[in-house]
Design a protein that fits this description.
about 20% strand; alpha/beta; 8-stranded parallel sheet; Enolase-like, domain 1; 2 domains; 3-stranded antiparallel sheet; TIM Barrel
């Protein structure tokens, strides 16, 4: 395991933080002459940091290795680390015998972070052909921002993502205006614990739970939401995320498959469960200055898969993967 820093093309601001780079940990699992790779993106919202997880790995390497080889991921402390270890193990199986049949292209939302109006005017032309735009907002100028985006991108559907940054009075005041601006989903408008206030807002717009819907409280808040954001990092991997998706489908909820700001090493594994989801929000690698070789690309709101990417490449994978790991070092 090694630390890796990815610099972003631009600052990525949401309601509670602003980032210019992301700190990852690249995981490698080796068996004989084969290796599996994955990426751990610590989930700051739930108290995870690169420093904490890296220290945990260093101090418990043997135990973690044994738990991983025995598929006992739930005994590993951090959910994003569980995810990476499970994915590295699955990748090891890909290099041995298994192969995922993925499409070459996927419709995904593309995110506009919180920008000032001047910056927004400069970049909005890039989104005119994007079918689904996710807009990060806080309580400042939300209506002005959405009106501007709708005017410049009239064919685009809009997801508003507040990351817990709105309040009840404001949302109730502007909800009817938002209905006329092609807004189809409002994601996590209020802080966890205030979800019940949504029952007093009548609208045709769907409400999506993200921060509020977690592995420890998945039953408590579902009645206030029609959509749930499922991220592999938030639930501890592909297997656990599939369990969550099955649970949500039994509850007749729509699923938004999400991601962190991350490289293709996080995005491509998530595509293996894309077919079970209603919406995709897998634009994490879009924001990186430099992704890994043969990573995904984005065009007009579509995620384009490169079949030569290391997580899918079964032909002669050893040279490809080891080269990647040496490059990280």
């Amino acid at each position: 395991f090694v630390k890796k820093k990815f610099f972003l093309k631009d600052s990525f601001r949401i309601s509670r933080e602003n980032k210019k780079f992301i700190k990852a940990i690249i995981i490698k699992i080796t068996e004989r002459d084969r290796s599996g790779f994955a990426e751990c993106i610590p989930y700051k919202r739930y108290g995870e940091t690169q420093k904490k997880i890296f220290s945990y790995l260093k101090n418990n390497e043997y135990e973690i290795t044994q738990l991983t080889r025995q598929n006992r991921f739930e005994e590993i402390k951090y959910l994003s680390l569980r995810t990476a270890l499970e994915l590295a193990f699955k990748h090891l199986n890909i290099t041995k015998n298994k192969k995922y049949n993925l499409s070459e292209k996927y419709l995904t939302s593309i995110t506009i972070p919180i920008f000032n109006q001047e910056k927004l005017k400069k970049i909005i032309h890039k989104f005119k052909d994007v079918n689904l735009i996710k807009v990060k907002v806080n309580k400042n100028n939300i209506l002005k921002t959405i009106k501007f985006i709708n005017k410049k991108c009239p064919k685009s559907k809009i997801i508003i993502d507040a990351n817990e940054g709105l309040n009840f009075i404001l949302l109730k005041k502007i909800i009817k205006d938002l209905e006329e601006l092609n807004v189809i989903i409002i994601e996590q408008p209020f802080k966890y614990g205030f979800d019940h206030k949504l029952k007093n807002i009548k609208t045709k717009i769907l409400f999506c739970a993200d921060e509020s819907f977690h592995i420890k409280n998945k039953n408590k808040i579902l009645k206030y939401y029609q959509v749930v954001n499922v991220k592999l990092d938030k639930f501890g991997g592909l297997n656990k995320s599939l369990e969550i998706i099955k649970f949500l489908k039994r509850k007749n909820k729509k699923i938004l498959l999400g991601c962190m700001v991350s490289s293709s090493l996080s995005i491509v594994p998530a595509l293996t469960i894309a077919k079970y989801c209603t919406f995709l929000d897998l634009d994490g690698a879009y924001f990186l200055k430099k992704d890994f070789k043969n990573g995904v690309s984005y065009k007009n709101g579509n995620l384009i898969l490169n079949k030569d990417f290391v997580w899918l490449n079964k032909k002669g994978p050893q040279e490809n993967l080891e080269g990647l790991f040496k490059k990280i070092n």
